Amino acid sequence: MAADAKIKANASSGGARAGGERALFDAFAQLKSGKEAARFLRDLATPGELEAFAERWRIARLLDEGRLSYREIAAATGASTTTVGRVARFLREENHQGYRLVLDRMAEKSGAKK
User: How crowded is residue 73: how many other Cβ atoms within 10 Å of its Cβ?
Assistant: First the structure.
């Protein structure tokens, strides 16, 4: 019987997971400043998770600048070339375009043009 309950839980977790993700994304949308985002993220994530997020964000910015190779970015950030490649793929090819959205908004806000 326990195995049946486990199978049911796994089968229904996709919908619950999507609903949980939507709720999390909606929570992020309520934040009004970097200071508020920091407070929320420090409660939500472990220090290691925050470091991983920060590393990926730094990689995305360096890739967007276009001055360094993947190997140079890996050396500068301490990330693996695999991580640099993954961030590059999401920055340039994946449908979400979240990195691009935020990079472009930050460039607009600072007056820089791409």
Answer: 24
* CA distance readout (Å), 65 to 8, 18, 71, 82: 47, 33, 15, 19
> What is the helix (H) or strand (E) element at residue 111, kind and residue range?
none
pTM of the model: 0.79
Judge residue 6's burial from the number of C-beta atoms within 10 Å of its C-beta, 0-12 exposed, 13-18 middle, 19 or more buried.
exposed
> How many other β-carbons are positioned within 10 Å of the β-carbon of residue 39?
12
Q: Are 81 and 74 in contact (CB under 8 A)?
A: yes
On whether the CB atoms of residues 87 and 99 are closer than 8 A, the answer is yes
The mean per-residue pLDDT over the stretch 79-96 comes to 96
- pLDDT over 90 percentage in the chain: 78
Q: Is 57 helix (H, G, I), strand (E, B) or coil?
A: helix
Lowest pLDDT segment from 13-22, 55-64, 95-104: 13-22
Q: What 3-state DSSP class applies to 56?
A: helix
